[in-house]
Amino acid sequence: MMKTLSFQDFASFHNANFRIAEAAGYEFTLAQLTDCSNAQLEQFSLIFTCPTTPWLPQGSYTFVHPDMGTVLLFLVPIGPVGKTMQYESVFSRFARNDNSTGSHLPA
Question: Is the N-terminal amide bond of 51 cis, ω within 30° of 0?
Fold first, then answer.
């Protein structure tokens, strides 16, 4: 079973470089992490940057980092900024309640 990724899984990799398995020669930098979670929802986003060309289309890509291993992320190009292209991966799900009886819906 695949591990459910959390904001904490990425926090120590801010400004780290990731290789893209499906695209030889691509290296992305984890430039920004934003956590918007609350009591009901776990929500966070990751902004990656790389050179503006060639750019990758929206889709799922395998990110590889020597310390983190491999992670499959769905990326959306959100536009160029200066000499870099920005891509975003967004996570949004009901917050895990360790005291729950199986339901993750808010009471």
Answer: no
CA-based radius of gyration for the chain: 15
Select from 6, 4, 16 the least CA-distant residue to 48. 16
Among the CATH numbers 2.40.128, 2.40.30, 2.60.40, 1.10.8, which is that of 7-94? 2.40.30
Q: What is the pLDDT along the chain (107 residues), one digit of tens a residue?
A: 467 899 999 999 999 999 999 988 889 999 999 999 999 999 999 999 998 888 899 999 999 999 999 999 999 999 999 999 999 999 999 987 654 444 443 43
Contact 75, 59 (CB under 8 A): yes
From CA 102, how far away is CA 93, in angstroms rounded? 15
How far, in Å, are 11, 19, 32, 92, 96 from residue 88 at the CA level? 15, 16, 9, 13, 23
